[in-house]
Amino acid sequence: MGKIHCVMIVLFSTLFVWAFLHVTQSVDKEKYVEITVSAGDTLWELADKYKHEHRLSHQQFIQWVMEVNQRSDDRLIVGEKIVIPVLKSNGENQLVANKQ
What Å distances lie between residue 34 and 59, 65, 91, CA to CA? Predict the structure, then answer.
């Protein structure tokens, strides 16, 4: 039982460290498109407007925007700038599969 117990502790510890590093990994906002919110914009509508550039579900898009922009709610204010999950690339947008 001693060896099994040690192996389980090592596996659990490794999993914990990997999860911690993955969760605390920040997104480099400079790589992504920043937009200025216009009157009537909602995160749902923005997800739909940029759906061909990000290929995330509406819910994934909204969650990404909320996390990266450190927002506590989904209400947008006209004129504020937010980063969206669309990569900048020489004038062309690339697809985003998930947070990078």
Answer: 19, 11, 13
Domain ranges of the chain: 28-87
Provide the token pair at 58. 């509406």
As given in the structure block, the two tokens for residue 8 are 């389980």
CATH architecture for segment(s) 28-87: Roll (3.10)
Per-residue pLDDT tens digits for 82-93: 999 999 984 444
- Residues 6+ positions from 81 with CB-CB distance below 8 Å: 34, 35, 36, 37
Per-residue pLDDT tens digits for 6-15? 777 877 777 6
